[in-house]
Design goal:
two-stranded parallel sheet, 423 residues, Outer membrane efflux proteins (OEP), single chain, alpha+beta
Length: 423
Amino acid sequence: MSSMPDMATGSAAPASPTDALPALVASPTLERSALIRVVLQRNPGIAAARAGWLAALSRYPQQTAWDDPMLSYRTYPRSIGAGVHYGQEIEISQRIPIGGKLDLQGEITLAEADAARADYQSVRLRLGMMASQLFDDYGLAVRSLAIIARQAQVVVDLKASAQAHVANGSASIQDALMADAEAAELQQELILATADRDVAITQLNGLLHRLPIDAPLPVPGDEAVATPGAESAALQEIAVRERPELGAVDARARRADSSLVLAERQYRPDVTVSGTYSSLWDQREYRYGLGVAVALPVHGDRLRGGIDEAHAQLTQAHLEREHMERDIRVEVAEAIRRLTAAESIATVIHDQLLPALTNRSDAARTAFAANRTTFEVIITATRARLGAELRYQQALTDVSRRRASLIRAIGRLPIPAPAGATP
């Protein structure tokens, strides 16, 4: 008979009794890895999934234990005072499973527990990915606000320059009005970026289960998501080995395989042995008896139906596994290509577009100071540089998201693993 596995083992560590939220919100900067770890600690969905896993493990001793022995007693009341032996019978019986059925039931239970553990890991990955994406949204909004605010100050300086040119007759009042219009446009963008930042904070507080829901958070840090240093084929193999969704399918296949063997073993009926005492016999030799009972597997349809059901479940699990493995390999390959494209776009913007538009803006301002160009050219060039700076921040955010998506595709969280732990 198999022994119950240690419920404390596994990839999931017990929930920490210390709430890490106060330290997180008191930190000068909000780092991605710290945020994800606190989300995983505080989210009740993870605790519920872990409880489901432990509940499945707790069914193991129930499924592998023998039935309790049965004790029965029978009396014959009319024998009392009738001048004969008091009539009574006592029987104790024990059902004995045959053919390793209890071990098979234990294997089925452990397979179900493995599937529950995979569900628990899937919940952790989903929430960790959600926290990482919200961190990126928060960081993008904060950086965009800084860029737009800096651009607004540039427009203030340009307006002062335009007013000076109007005063000396080298420019028209339309130039100053154009600066006012650009300032109004930037004010709208500041409002939208502020809303994006506040929405990200609200969503992060919700994920952290923190009240009030709009309480401020530290400014986002610059902790980047590390790129897995391996080729596509190697990352695909890691994904096949570590994705919890595949682990759940494999667990269902093991359950179906054990169920099939158990269904076939039903043709080996269990045996019930018993011992009896009866006072009804005058001869002492007949008062004590031993017995054995065995079920007769005469209803073949029921047994064959159980075997057919297990066969179908096993086939289904194998087909699901094949289909899911293919989809996971495609997902990893796609994530690599999209990450490569995002990194290339960020490089082009940083190395080519931003320098070109910065030089264009500087040249326009120099030319305007020398009365060699119009104020509209400056506004257009400045607006183009602002757009490129915002696009670059969006490109950096896309790179971070694509890296996180790739790490999620191979079945890991987008955070550095603790020393000595499996990521």
